[in-house]
Amino acid sequence: MESRPLPEDKVDNYRFRLGQFELVPIMIGGMGVDISTTELALAAARLGGVGHISDAMVQHVSDRKFDTHFTKAKSEKHRRTRDGFDKTTVKFDLEHLRQAQLNHVRDTMERKRGPGAVFINVMEKLTMGAPGDTLKARLAGALDGGIDGITLSAGLHTGSLRLMEDHPRFRDVKIGPIVSSLRALKIFLKSGARLDRLPDYVVVEGPLAGGHLGFGEDWRQYDLRDIVAEIIAFLREEKLDIPVIPAGGIFTGTDAVSYLRTGAAALQLATRFTVTEECGLPARVKQEYYRATEADIVVSGVSPTGYPIRLLTYSPCFTSNVKPQCEAFGYLLSREGTCAYLDAYEKTPVDAKGRKLVPREKVCLCYHFAKFNCYTCGHYVYRLKDTTRRLPDGSYQVLTTEHVFRDYQFSTGQRVALPEAAQPAPAALADV
């Protein structure tokens, strides 16, 4: 599927047609917890592309943004289980969950301007003690809030369409899964066929993507271009007009064009947007991303989800012995009230002073995502320093979403446009 773009071919020469939308073929991925912020998604929509928000730990996000108290209420309700390892009674209030999602989505959609679209990334692996019920509540909140599209991630989502089928917007909202293989797409298509509701698009995520991967320990044996080519060929053979959107390791506009010229409809991008002003990562973490080298990247099995996860080796979560935070969070609890971190923490010994040692097998993903202590990243995070300028104090200049978006849209020849040099702050006027 290798194809060399023409010298002046650029992303802006193409358009992504999706129902009533005619879009710049750039989609910013839905990174959680609130890394793909409302502000990041709105910037993408204003520029004519697609922005995502994420519903990862949405009650926690709602509490931070709208002064709700869903996390505290859940923690107080289940306080009697804090010192034990039996979490079978730790459940979410489904109306609180729906309301948190509604808050997040409605606020975003009310502020949306421009010709683009805003989607939400909804993860099946957030089992939350009641997989079907909690997923249905999150989907209902997103639909009620007026979201333009729902991207179904972190799982096969064989039952997710049925959870939405009674909603009045089920036939109108754009729906698409994230898959990492043709096999996964075929499984989703079968579930859609039963409801006469095929996906409006499909995101094909390769092994160089950030965060959790849809591959096993053999992820190095796969190539995004091969998977995309196989899926495009299958859809053509089946005469299914479903736009294909590659994701993972697409670092320049020239990389993006090479997929568009071979049949992709758009590109999902994330890594370069993690270090923008609108991104939800704290300023200190953005600098940690900039300083990364290729040797600092690891694909690890520490996630309780069971998926491999790509992150930086100096992420603070690796050295943490935090007590499981299931009463407040509990987003990864199974319906039986279990979690791989719970098991790892329980069997980890204590030191001579009775303090729990650091669990080596798993990390408490809920707690550390909430604190931005898991530096999840795409494979090319080590190239971020080449996209900006080094400042006199040794830090790196943070970019705007518009700068990165326009660079993807208009760049050619594998070039990356550096930002204009940051101007020093004006000196304070002397007292007179």
Describe the protein's topology.
Elements lengths: L15 E3 L2 E3 L2 E3 L9 H9 L3 E5 L3 H9 L3 H8 L16 H18 L5 E7 L7 H14 L4 E5 L6 H5 L9 E6 L2 H13 L7 E4 L5 E2 L11 H14 L6 E4 L5 H8 L6 E3 L13 H8 L6 E4 L8 E4 L27 H8 L17 H6 L30 H10 L22
Parallel strand pairs: 3-11, 4-5, 5-6, 6-7, 7-8, 8-10
Antiparallel strand pairs: 1-2, 9-13, 12-13
Helix pairs in contact: 1-4, 2-4, 4-5
Question: Short summary of the structure?
Answer:
This protein is of the alpha/beta class and 432 residues long.
Describe the protein's architecture and organization.
The protein is α/β, with parallel strands linked by helices and about 425 residues long. Helices cover about 30% and strands about 10% of the residues. The chain contains 13 helices and 13 strands. It has helices at about 40-45, 60-65, 70-75, 95-110, 130-145, 160-165, 180-195, 225-235, 255-260, 285-290, 340-345, 365-370, 400-410, and strands at about 15-20, 20-25, 25-30, 50-55, 115-125, 150-155, 175-180, 200-205, 210, 245, 265-270, 295-300, 310. Helix 1 runs parallel beside helix 4 (about 95-110), helix 2 packs across helix 4 (about 95-110) and helix 4 (about 95-110) runs parallel beside helix 5. The radius of gyration is 22 Å and the shape is globular. It starts with 15 loop residues before the first strand and ends in a 22-residue tail after the last helix. About 50% of the residues are buried.
